[in-house]
Amino acid sequence: MLNQIAIAVVGFSVMALLLLVLQKRSESTTAKILANTLLCNLIAIQILQGLYINDYLLFENFITLIYFLLLGYVGPVFYFYSQYIIHRDKQWRPQDNAHFLLPIVIAIFGYHFPEYFNITYAIVFLLGGIYMASLAWSLYGLRMRRTLFKTEFLFTASFLSWAIAMVFIAVFSTQVMDYLIPAQVIMLAIAIAAAVHIQLNYPHLLSSLEEIANKFYQSSTLSNVDCEDAKTRLEELMKSNKIYQDADLSLSSLAEILSMKSHQLSELINTQLGMSFSAYLRYQRVKAAEALLIKEPEVSVLAIGLDVGFSSQSAFYSAFREVHAIAPGQYRRQMIAK
Fold first, then answer.
1. Is the dihedral of CA 45, 47, 48, 53 positive or negative?
2. Is this structure's pTM higher than 0.70?
3. How many domains does the chain have?
4. Domain span at residue 55?
5. Element (H, E) at 79
6. DSSP annotation of 180
7. Which tens digits make up the pLDDT trace of 271-320?
8. Domain boundary at 179, 209, 239, which?
9. Radius of gyration of the chain (CA)
């Protein structure tokens, strides 16, 4: 039964991961590389595990080396990707490469000593658990805003618990291959489904995390900026130029228009307007949508959402509910009925 469920979810996992790889991303170049590396890693892991469950291959010889190498890289790659989100100005250092040496050593050990497969498996998950614990500590550093980050805390805590469980099962179970591989396939599919759910229902979560993290860690950068003038120019861009209609508008592109640095604009909006850049942009788009929903009742809700700059229906509905606690269609009906 466990094997049948695992086989059923492999296809979903691979397709969902491929869509995430093809997704348009707004992170830094290094963060994009790390994200796509992680996603491709997970695709390869699920395919190998699916083939094993279907009896198309065995985890032995070179396959064992590749499998443990892929598993070992999940922890450090995910950790560094998260660090590049939390610390926008982070630069790759030569010593960071050392983090990718230990998974190679573990994989070589598993390759040369197949009789210790269980122990190698446990070590791989122990390594991943250490990286997740370190990431959880970084997120705890943002505890002043932990309400906003409860999703990240829940995710990291769940993964850490899973890693610890895998360590104990691998050490004490004599049938690790029969139960652990299918269980891992299912757990990974659940994690992927959760990631897709967050992407669809909370599309702005990642950008909010990035902005607030940078606000937390950085000192003031506005000492040489005329804040009132910058605010006036920003409001002009929104009201007269309707720059919010650009679905690809980002913090960096808007900062360039205003002749500012990205972190300066982020701090300006945070300190002067009391919200993050992504929240400010969503608010501007929602306010524009409010008028159009009433002024143009014959135009579909989705068309209005796209017209004011939202990239998808889910992003529009999520942002609108943030402001009004109801869906845009319901808001239109209530306002027209008045």
1. positive
2. no
3. 2
4. 2-209
5. helix 62-86
6. H
7. 788 888 888 899 999 999 999 999 888 899 999 999 999 988 888 988 89
8. 209
9. 23
